[in-house]
Design a protein that fits this description.
The chain is mostly helical and 159 residues long. The chain has 2 domains: 38 residues; 117 residues, Four Helix Bundle (Hemerythrin (Met), subunit A), CATH 1.20.120.1490. The protein is built from 7 helices and no strands. Keywords: Membrane, Transmembrane, Transmembrane helix. Pfam families: Metal_resist (PF13801).
């Protein structure tokens, strides 16, 4: 009895399997990108907004005020990018100082002090942007913000 499967067609099934796997991979990547980018980015509590201002202060803002603050932070991106680069450079310098032999504790102190100063400038930027946003609120809106902030801070203390 002869084999009905032609030697020329043995590659078809493996090719279909590879094609299916490849297509599923592409669909998964596209779905991941779409889900990751869905939603309102101005309402998210990540990235520079959290590192500049602090999550409780952001969370207490109304969504539209949070979006406005995020927009102001994005407008100040050049100064913040420069600040991030300086922090990254200090971190690299710290790694070098930690690997140095002999170890120089004074060099590490200087680098840590520089990092603190850069981080403080970054926090000052965030605080100024938050105060600018709060200044635009009515007294009633600021009172509501204060209530939400106090509630969030009480919740954090219990955790």
């Amino acid at each position: 009895m002869s084999d009905k499967t032609s030697p020329k067609r043995r590659w078809v099934k493996p090719l279909l399997a590879v094609s299916l796997v490849f297509n599923m991979l592409i669909v998964g990547i596209i779905a991941g990108i779409l889900f990751a980018n869905s939603g309102d980015k101005g309402d998210r509590l990540d990235g520079p907004m959290r590192s500049l201002v602090g999550t409780p202060f952001i969370r207490a803002l109304e969504p539209e005020d949070r979006r406005a603050l995020a927009l102001e932070i994005r407008r100040d991106d050049a100064r913040l990018r420069e600040n991030r680069s300086a922090l990254r450079a200090r971190f690299e310098a710290l790694l070098g100082a930690l690997d140095a032999d002999p170890f120089d504790p004074e060099a590490v102190r200087v680098i840590l002090r520089e990092q603190r100063d850069i981080a403080l400038r970054r926090q000052n930027i965030g605080e100024a942007l938050l105060v600018d946003q709060l200044q635009k609120l009515s007294p009633e809106e600021r009172a509501a913000y204060a209530d939400r902030l106090a509630r969030d801070l009480r919740r954090l203390r219990r955790e």
